[in-house]
Write a structure and sequence with these properties.
Order of helices and strands: HEEEHEHHHHEEEH
Strand order of the largest sheet: 2-1-3-4
Strand content: 15-25%
Largest sheet: 4 strands, mixed
Structural class: alpha+beta
Number of strands: 7
Radius of gyration: 24 Å
Number of helices: 7
Amino acid sequence: MFLSSYEKLRKSILNENTILSMAHFGARAFDSIGGEVVSTTAFVIEKSQHLEYKGAYLQLIDGNCEADKKAELKTKISDPFRTSAADFKKIPEGPIMYWVSEKITDIFEHNKRLESIAPGKVGLQTGSNDIFVRYWFEVSAKKTSFSINRKHDFSRKWFPYNKGGDYRKWYGNNENIVNWENDVYEIRNFTDQNGKLRSRPQNREYYFKSRILFMNCWLKR
């Protein structure tokens, strides 16, 4: 329904068929399969396209067993979400996000994508934060550079490293520093016992530049 790896399948369904109805069970739809191992959905598809047809979608993801799902179905079956393939196609990759409001889909349809303004890039992945990352108060201030303009001051070992953290409404989570000694030499050469590189010091041309940074962006329904 949402994974980028199934984008082609979703496009095929939306371009050639019509989803008439869908029951989104999520995890724990079967008592024989515990935990979050399998997420389930059941649907009815017509083998012809009616782009504006608003199918019926039931969100049954809150129950923890088959009996809970059954009870939830009885409660929600008379008031399903109504969404069309045309709405899904307004959002990049065409995820089956049937609960999204018209206001949100209009934002996607009528505004630029972030990648057209500032393409996203993955930053430094150390391979072992326990080895290469510290809190700023754990090391000597004399070995730490807090200015992003001093990247070539290799007499300093530690530099600021954004790692996210707990919720901050406006600004914060500036606790971490990373081992940048000798132009991040140790991280760039950090391998496992078989010689395979464990770290990923990628997109280095973007380091020390002004940016908008986030650690995780996810959606679950």
